[in-house]
Every structure is written in C-alpha cells, then in structure tokens.
Amino acid sequence: MPQSPDDLDAVAVRTWCSLALEALGRERAAIDAINVYPVADGDTGTNLYLTVESAAAAVEAVFAAHETGSTTPAPADAVRAMAHGALIGARGNSGTILAQLLRGMAGVLAESGDADHLRAALTEAAAAARQAVAHPVEGTVLTVATAAAEAAAGTEGSAVLKDVVDAAYDGARAALAATPGQLAVLGRAGVVDAGGQGLVAVLGALLEAVGGRAREPGVRPAPEPAPLTGDCADADPDGGPAFEVIFLLEAPDDAVARLRSRLDALGDSLVVVGGDGLWNVHVHVDDAGAAVEAGVEAGRPYRIRITHFAADRGAAHREPAQRAVVVVVPGDGLSGLCAEAGATTVLARPGEPPASGELVDAIRRAHAREVVLLPNDAQLRHTAAAAAEQARAEGIRVALVPTRAAVQGIAALAVHEPDRSFDEDVVAMTSAAGATRYAELAVAERQSWTMAGICQAGDILGLIDGDVAVIGQDVHGTARTVLDRMLSAGGELVTLVLGEDVTDALADGLEAYIREGYLAVDTVVYRGGHQAAPLLIGVE
Q: Which residue intervals of 110-233 are DSSP H helices?
C-alpha cells in the first residue's frame, strides 16, 4: 500500500490515475451490465474506462517530459494534465461528466493538494458537474458526487488527507446504494446507477493512492428496489432520441452559451464541459446533422463521434449485435448519412487522420461480435490494419475492406446485409467498393508538376483514382472533364458528394450534364458538409 502523503502531489496523482484505470478495467463489463440510464446501451463502464485512460496517458506524458531531469513534475502540472486528458478523451454521458468532475477538482488542487484544498476541490467538482448538465437528475452520478463532497466537508478541521478521501468514499457508496429509490428505471431494474458506480471506483482508487484502505470489491446491484422519492421518480429513458453525438469544440464562452440553448431544443442528455476555449459536447438527438451544424456555428468542432442507439434501448443490458460497420468519413454530412444507415462513424479531419486508437474505440462502440471496417483512405491502410488486429485480440471478429475513398465506402455500405453470413457480406461489400472508381477535386496550393502537367496555385485539380488527371480553372468545368474521362469506360451510377461551399446550382448543373450526355446513367447527390475536397465523385 502506498505511504500516506501529506498532500496530493504529482506522484500521488499519477498513482491515482493508474489505480483508477485498473479498477475500471476490472469492473468495466459489470458496470456496462447495469447501465440502464439515461440509455440502456451497455457502455458506461467502457466509456468511463476510456475517459480515465486518456487522463492517465496525459499524466504519463507530463512525467515523460521530466525523465531527463532530476525532479518530478509540479503537482499543478499533473492535475491539469489529468483534467485535460479526461476532457479530450471523454466518452459518453458518464465519461463527459467525469471529465468535468476532474476539471473542477484540478482547478482547486492546482493551488495545493492538502486536506483543506481537497475538501474544496470535491465541492467544486460536484457543483461544476451539475452546471454542465442541462437538466440534472437525482439518482445519478451527480447525486453520488454531491454526497461525496458533503461527506468530505464533514471532516473540516482534519489535516489528514486520507480522512477526507475516506469520508468522501463512504459518502459516495451510501449515496450509490440509495440511487434505485430516486430513479424509477433503476428501481425497476434492481440496479444502482452505473455512472455513480464508476465514480465510486475512481474515489476508491484515490483512497488507495493516499494510503487508505483497500476498495470494496466489485459492482453490487441494489438488493431490493427502494421506495421512490424526489422529483425524478417518474424519469424514464425509453423511446429517446436515436443518436448520440459527441465532439470537441474550440469556441468562446458566449458562443457555447448559445450552443447549449440550441442543442437543448434538439434533444436530451445534454452535457457541455470544459472552458478556456476548449469544450467537450455530448447530446442525444434524432437529427445528428443538426447537432453537428450547431457546433459548426459555435466554433470548430472536431473528433466528431455519432453513434446510433440500438432499438432495444429499454433493456437493462444490450447484448452485442451480430454485426456492425465502422466507417471513416471526410465530412460531417457523410457522418450523419452513414450513422442513419446504422454505421458507427469516425470523422477524418483535414490534415488530422484518425489514429489506430480512435478506430479501435469506434469498433468497441459498435458493440458487435462482427465488424466490417471501411477506412476510405489508402493512407489509412496500415492504421486500420493495426486497429483491426487489436480489436481481434479483444475477441471481436473484424474484416477490413480496403476502401480508398468515401464514395467506395458508400457503395460498400449500400450492399451491406447483416442477415447473410459474415464472409458473404464482406465479399459483397468488397466487390461493390472495388467496382467503384473514385475521383475528387482539389485546389492547388502552389505551383508543382503533376501527371497532367504543371499546375499553378489556385488551379482546380481533378484526381482520378488518386492521380492528378485534369487541371482546370473552375470547379464546374473541371468536374465535367473528370466525369467525361470516368464515364468513357462505362458506368451505371454516379455519386456526387458536395463540400459545404459548393452551391446547389453547381450540383444541378452537373446532374443535368450527366442526364443529357449519358442517358443510361443515374445520379445521386449527397451533402458532405465540412470536408477538405469541394467535390467527391464515384462511378459504379
């Protein structure tokens, strides 16, 4: 057991993160199993684990930066790294709230980690978490956090750090046991709140880190449903919105205030955490595209994740689906489109391709025994292969379809049939992707030599199957030339994916051009939203 420190220094913060990650790793599946609120999607334990994993990695990075020196990091650097790591890595409703709890604590503990500051930190954390949630509900992790803070405040006068955490831990456990009597859905299922259980695990890790007693073992559902009390006795998550939307957002405070109002009108389970220009936004909505558009209006959203909830959201535990599709998309418009088709999406930001960890996270979020992965970028083939291999090591059957462009992914998703055998489905999706030629338009940034000749800065480049084939002066003319070259070899269907700056008039003109020049060819048009290329083209 670690020696009891006088205050929460950098080493103690590092130990806390490590022990919390271990605890959530052990309890992840059990916490997932009791996840019935706000949506019974069986992922609270996993989301909390991934959030703490990001926090722990950030703290380790601070220590790594001091490896060549003789000193350890400053306590303020460690707690701020923990909070920042949790913020950028927060997953789900529970993970987002935990990130705000850690951020609230860090703001106080950066000044000092002694007993008085820890008491104040727990109080600030509970208040900050409630403020971040649009409509706080009792019987949840918020209740557990408040009880922990109140119990810690009862140790006023004690200078022993362990006494403060010990009281907070006991207060949290007592509040957790009472949650079925505060929230109807918990009482009916006979379980405690999953997010609250995760917070108890995190506080238990803190208790061990400061030299306190070992944590109580495991996840224990409530033995009997308790009498319902409070304003939230009738709360019921059944029949809620279809999508979970999460993104990081760079935006000023006043823009975030407007964003809260707009997202609150679109859906529920709204949690906005962060500050100082960086925010993590979580909401459940029926219109995923509108939620992302609200983020675009507020600032710069990135790391956008859209998850389609299972139809059996009312079950106490969602069994893994037989099969799912994970697709990388270049714009928020396609993200919403693919999510509506049932796929789990990963947004590839311009100049910031997703890492293998993001793809593994998406495979886990798909919550399926079998997953088809569509990277939609030739440069992602090694990253996608590494993610698939890691997921296979976790027992998930993953097939990587080597799609090299988003239009190939759309073609593959269009023929996806989860009712047929996995191998047959993968073959059909691979065949559809392979039968789709792809092109995109790009704006030349500088003078350079290409396969089509020398281009000047500002020229419109038409790339077919990855190579520059056309150099033009405007989007419409270049697009027509590219279409002529692609359709000269035949085709039955043209897919056009328009960037946010492409006008409807241009799209209508291209449709008319195809209709008049190629009578047997059909055209489908999608809005890609904010994407690097003004136009993506697919020919099947």
A: 115-132, 141-153, 161-178, 184-189, 194-209
How far apart are the C-alpha atoms of 385 and 133, rounded to whole Å? 38
138 vs 118: CA distance, rounded Å: 24
List Cα–Cα distances, 357 to 61, 73, 281, 381, 384, in angstroms: 17, 27, 20, 14, 10
**111, 112, 92, 90: which is closest to 102 by C-alpha?**
90
What 8-state DSSP symbol labels residue 352?
B
pLDDT tens, position by position, 125-139: 999 999 999 899 999
How far apart (Å, rounded) are the C-alpha atoms in residues 17 and 53?
8
Tokens of 386: 């590494």
Is residue 131 a contact partner of residue 151, using CB atoms and an 8 Å limit? no
CA 36 to chain centre: 19
CA 117 to chain CA mean position, Å: 32
Q: Could you read off the pLDDT of 161-174 as tens digits, one per residue?
A: 899 999 999 999 99
Q: Which residues of 456-478 are buried (b: 16+ CB within 10 A; e: fewer)?
A: eeebbbbbbeeebbbbbeebbeb
Q: What is the largest CA-CA distance in the chain?
A: 85
Q: Kindly compute the dihedral angle of the four CA atoms of residues 425, 428, 431, 435, in this order, to the nearest 10 degrees.
A: -130
Rounded to 5°, the CA angle 165-168-174 comes to 140
Mean pLDDT of 173-182: 92
For the beta sheet containing 344-347, the strands, ordered from the edge strand earlier in sequence to the opposite edge, are: 344-347, 321-329, 368-374, 397-400
**Res 196 pLDDT > 90:** yes
Tokens of 397: 């059957």
**348 contacts 354 by C-beta, under 8 angstroms:** yes
* Cβ contact 367:323 at 8 Å: no
Residues 484-495 have a mean pLDDT of 89
Mean pLDDT of 266-294: 89
For the segment 18-35, the average pLDDT, to the nearest whole number, is 89
Q: Comparing C-alpha atoms, which of 378, 384, 373 is closest to residue 422?
A: 373
